Amino acid sequence: MTEIHVITRDNRRLYADHLETCFHLRHQIFVGERGWEDLRRGDGRDIDRYDDEHAVYLLAIDRDRVVGGQRLYPTLLPHMISEVFPHLASRGIPRAPTVFEWTRYFVVRERRMGRTDCRLLAGLQEFCLAEGITEVTAVVEMWWLPRWQQSGFKVKPLGLPATVEGEACIAASVRISEESLESVRRLGGLRESCLVRQGIRSPVLERVPYAAA
Ligand code: A1S
Q1: CA distance to 3, 76, 84, 109, per residue, from 137 (Å)
Q2: Spacing, Cα 202 to ligand 1 middle (Å)
Q3: Which residue of 38, 47, 67, 128 is 20 to 30 Å from 30, comparing CA positions?
Q4: 23 Cα–ligand 1 center, Å
């Protein structure tokens, strides 16, 4: 069964191989499939400056195989919206200890039937609720908006849509709530938690760097 494993700096060493696989899968998917050429690297791994000790990964793992993933990063630190896409957030960039940026969301091709996706989305809501994270921000293609609506996610645009690498994109904030968690669990037919936390000190929020850089 696919479970969503929480990986932070506390337990990274337990998941060294899974993370390595995740970086290779990200390269295959975002560069090979999606054509995001800026991310291309000779070693076939997608790793950027936000893959540091502050990143939190929620990886979908089925019998030791990584089948999906996503990354959260504190908005009090320089992050993708503040450094790369500030022009997409004309209404202001939400930055607070309880707001994280959400990036690098993927499901491996063979698992794209919505079920892994629902688990990842439910895992995101559940993890954030447990940690006191109230909101996640993201830059997404416009086709995410109906997907989120279908999942029961409450979304607020941070600015107007603009073209990024030929695709209409928008910066948005997604509210974390029990209702959204219930809604996406219903959509995916999930009856219970699928989050796995091994060797993590909670809450993660307590150790988020507070000084805005
Ligand atoms: C940043 C994201 C942040 C949240 C962090 O009937 P279909 O096939 O048209 O249904 C599709 C489309 O409606 C839509 N969709 C998916 N990819 C699309 C694309 N490139 N352009 C336009 N629409 C797209 O979603 C429906 C279902 O997609 P799916 O792939 O059949 O199945 P699943 O299981 O829901 O997986 C969706 C994701 C996005 C996870 C999967 O397609 C994937 O991993 N894609 C590559 C990585 C990626 O593009 N991530 C988003 C940007 S990161």
Answers
A1: 24, 12, 14, 25
A2: 31
A3: 128
A4: 18
- Residues 6 or more apart whose CB falls under 8 angstroms from that of 138 comprise 101, 102, 103, 144, 171, 172, 174
Q: What percentage of residues in the chain have a pLDDT greater than 90?
A: 91
List, for residues 124-151, the tens digit of each pLDDT value: 999 999 999 999 999 999 999 999 999 9
Question: Is the shortest distance between the CB of 143 and ligand 1 below 6 Å?
Answer: yes
pLDDT (average), residues 139-165? 96
Query: Distance, CA 148 to ligand 1 centroid (Å)?
Result: 11
Q: What is the pLDDT of residues 63-108, one digit of tens each?
A: 999 999 999 999 999 999 999 999 999 999 999 999 999 999 999 9
Tell how far the Cα of 128 is from the centroid of ligand 1, in angstroms: 22
